[in-house]
Design brief:
With 247 residues, the chain is mainly beta. The chain is 9% helix and 48% strand. The two termini are 50 Å apart.
Length: 247
């Protein structure tokens, strides 16, 4: 075979094979913060190459974006925010009148390319002071807007990223607010007792039976121990999608 024939053979077109790959990478967000986010990128390579981009999802107490306590390490992962004795102490307030507390939570997210991102929030609150309280969950505009007087509409889901294409590298922070109010349960009981005494020596001239009556009232109040509060959780579960509803 001649050299020219060899070159021609290399130029001969061949069909491309499509392949899918998922790449998990860790990057540092915010110089000096020491916080590591797990980011992943899925792409299809070949004649129909379509980069999907990076996805980020994190949950924690309000902080600088990129420095929250917990970040997802896989697509569709659930993250939890926990509360317990510290928040219960503020909620319990005065044992006779009760109290109120507002607990802020921050959610960081990013979805590049044509990747949309939606998440839901599922509260799990049972027992203790929180379990004996009236509570509601709200999506607010900022951490500072999370107060016991918030008028924000109660919510349980959000879609911070649609499937419209974006190459943004900036995290979007959203804020949630759990508001709880504790009113002690009290009750009162009133009772009257009557005692009748009979003469010891019956017979003519014996004194008539004696009767005495007395009443008393007692007040009962619900007593709880904030330091023994069980752990309550807000579970944030996210999912991603592409145009047309494809995962």
């Amino acid at each position: 075979m001649t050299q020219d024939a060899t070159r021609a053979a290399w130029r001969r077109p061949h069909g491309w094979l499509l392949s899918g790959a998922v790449l998990l990478v860790a990057v540092l967000v915010g110089a000096g913060t020491g916080s590591t986010l797990a980011l992943w990128r899925a792409e299809v390579s070949g004649t129909a190459r379509m980069p999907v981009g990076v996805t980020v999802f994190g949950v924690g107490a309000p902080a600088t974006p990129g420095t929250l306590a917990t970040y997802a390490t896989a697509d569709r992962q659930s993250l939890t925010f926990e509360l317990g004795p510290a928040q219960a102490a503020a909620l319990y307030g005065d044992a006779s009148t009760g109290g109120a507390v507002a607990v802020p939570v921050q959610v960081d997210s990013l979805a590049q390319g044509h990747r949309g991102l939606t998440y839901t929030v599922t509260p799990s609150i049972t027992g203790g002071v929180f379990g004996a309280s009236r509570w509601s969950l709200h999506k607010v505009t900022s951490a500072a807007a999370c107060t016991t007087a918030t008028t924000a509409t109660a919510a349980t889901s959000s879609t911070p990223w649609t499937t419209a294409y974006t190459s943004s590298t900036t995290l979007v922070s959203e804020y949630w607010c759990l508001v709880a109010r504790f009113v002690p349960v009290t009750g009162s009981h009133t009772n009257t007792a009557t005692v009748t005494g009979t003469p010891v020596i019956p017979g003519p001239g014996a004194p008539a039976p004696l009767t005495a009556t007395d009443s008393w009232t007692a007040t009962a109040r619900q007593t709880l121990v904030p330091s023994a509060e069980p752990t309550h959780r807000l579970t944030f579960t996210f999912s991603t999608s592409r145009p047309g509803g494809a995962p």
